[in-house]
Amino acid sequence: MSTPTVPDDGMRINKYLSRAGVCSRRTADTLVAARRVAINGEVVTAHGTQVQPGDTVAVDGEPVGLQEKEYLVLNKPAGCITTVRDDRGRQTVMDVIGRGDANPTGLAPVGRLDRDTTGVLLLTNDGDLAHRLMHPSYEIDKIYFVQTKQPVKPHQLDLLRRGVDIGDDRPARAADAAYVQPPQKEWIALKLHEGRNRQIRRMCDALGHHVRTLDRVQFGGITLQGLERGAVRSLTEQEIADLRNRVSS
Q: What is the pTM of this model?
């Protein structure tokens, strides 16, 4: 893979930092406002500052450079942490994909899955796309298969769609809820457009149901496509284009 370069007419600093895998463009503007970004040793003070070919860019004194974009999907196994690194020495998703010791392209998970939740997890160093995919305003579909200890009653599916109190400032609701294979009622499918902390487990707890298994089977149209648990693959060009189209507005 060839390393991307700055075009001859320059590149806006927030776009550069996003392409470098440092953060999203919005966060890059915050870094500039905090005077944490420098070009050729000079602190950047204007959001519209252009990076020119041959310029050296640093954040908090650490040089950063453009990276070839990577887009991966992992079939996350249970028992690993959805983070780049863990100070307590626990296994992370980066360890699972073989990037635990070295991560030269700045790859990072898109959102989070609980330690014991399995299934579709996207990873990328495209900070701008990752930020948009996680933003609730784009209502990216996330579909989960949930196994509960006791059968879920039909009226409880209605409650999940309408919203249940999970102790936050507003009810949590599923965009849709259905049985995976009726009439079997211990497995339900939930579609979410948001991703609050342990949301599905808390929603089920609110209805008196203990979650035995939680597996994400789709994120923004991306599925596991036969990936074994713990396996990873690159997204296709069509899958990447489809994701961008979902957050293009």
A: 0.80
